[in-house]
Design brief:
Blueprint (H helix, E strand, L loop, with lengths): L1 E2 H29 L4 H19 L4 H15 L4 H16 L4 E2 L1 H19 L9 H10 L4 H13 L24 H19 L10
Antiparallel strand pairs: 1-2
Length: 209
């Protein structure tokens, strides 16, 4: 079972991953975006960790809802509302339960991903964060490790795609050949999730290393 402590550790791990990869995310964003994806997310997730330390919500839903609010209020560009919506809607779907199992979490996360798709008007294959989020959540019933691997492969699979949504879509064919920064940062969330599960001794962590 996953409790509030697990979700706080997950978001702290995600913040560390974003901080570590921020320069790379911005580098990916330079040819097809505003060259600020890494710095924006770093600022947002730093604010999330600060807020969680200050308030320490005691249910999984409250942890994710607070994190989503922080991202919406502190991250510029499109990624703040998108990531904020992802976490807020997932948290709302989890309700007031003190603990949730992996199946409940996967179901709630899918609700959050559906909200992101609706907000951005995008679908898998459009070269957006959904290209990592959807395979990631599809992998969750197998294990956290399987979800991490599926999200990573989804991010890599954006390289040959032509962007159909977001700022990159304005580039047309010139967006081909670049890995989508949003899909790449989304894969980091699943990487942090698998790490958190492994550290916590979750029995269904699975996956590689």
């Amino acid at each position: 079972m996953l409790d509030a402590h697990f979700f706080r550790r997950w978001l702290t791990a995600a913040a560390a991953a974003v901080d570590r990869e921020a320069d790379r995310l911005t580098e990916l964003d330079s040819p097809i975006g505003d060259a600020d994806h890494g710095s924006n997310l770093r600022r947002g997730f730093t604010a999330v960790v600060t807020a969680l330390e200050k308030e320490a919500p005691d249910t999984p839903g409250a942890v994710l809802t607070l994190a989503g609010r922080q991202l919406i209020s502190t991250v510029g560009g499109a990624s703040g509302p998108l990531y904020g919506t992802l976490l807020r809607r997932t948290g709302k779907a989890l309700g007031d339960a003190r603990e949730v199992d992996e199946a409940r979490f996967a179901e709630a996360l899918r609700t959050g991903i559906d909200a992101v798709a609706a907000l951005g008007g995008a679908a898998p294959g459009d070269k957006t964060m959904l290209d990592a989020l959807v395979p990631g959540v599809d992998g969750l019933p197998d294990s956290f490790g399987a979800a991490r691997e599926a999200a990573l492969q989804g991010a890599l699979a954006t390289i040959p795609l032509r962007a159909r949504k977001g700022r990159a879509s304005y580039l047309g064919e010139r967006s081909v050949g670049h890995q989508d920064p949003g899909a790449t940062s989304s894969a980091l969330l699943f990487e942090a999730l698998a790490e958190t599960a492994a550290e916590g001794g979750e029995s269904r962590e699975g996956g590689h290393g």
